[in-house]
Amino acid sequence: QVQLVESGGGLVQPGGSLRLSCVASGDYFYTYVMGWYRQGPGKQRDLVATLTRHNNTNVPDSLRGRFTISRDDAKMAVYLQMNNLQPEDTAVYYCFSAVCLGCEGDWGQGTQVIVSS
Fold first, then answer.
1. Of 76, 89, 95, 99, which is least packed with CB atoms within 10 Å of its CB?
2. SS3 78
3. Nearest to residue 60, comparing CAs of 45, 51, 44, 47?
4. Rounded to an integer, what distance in angstroms lies between the CA atom of residue 88 and that of residue 58?
């Protein structure tokens, strides 16, 4: 099992940027895919971005170009750079890790992002 702790959320104005961080502990050696999901008010949890150890990324077309995922295995961390944030990006952002694509995985506690003027 992997424990995940997110940070970097907060309040930002439309057009602004945030960088989320997620640091893992525990059985990180077996982690293959890490990523981010988000859940807006009254919405389901949706994919934001995932990144495998082979550097294969999966980012929805609607977010590509604004959101960039990266990972640092030496630091057991994954990051999400979010640019040109809009009010519709307001959500709780959850870090995720799993030992394979499509596998059940572990989740962080979430970090709140609010985009508002």
1. 99
2. strand
3. 47
4. 20
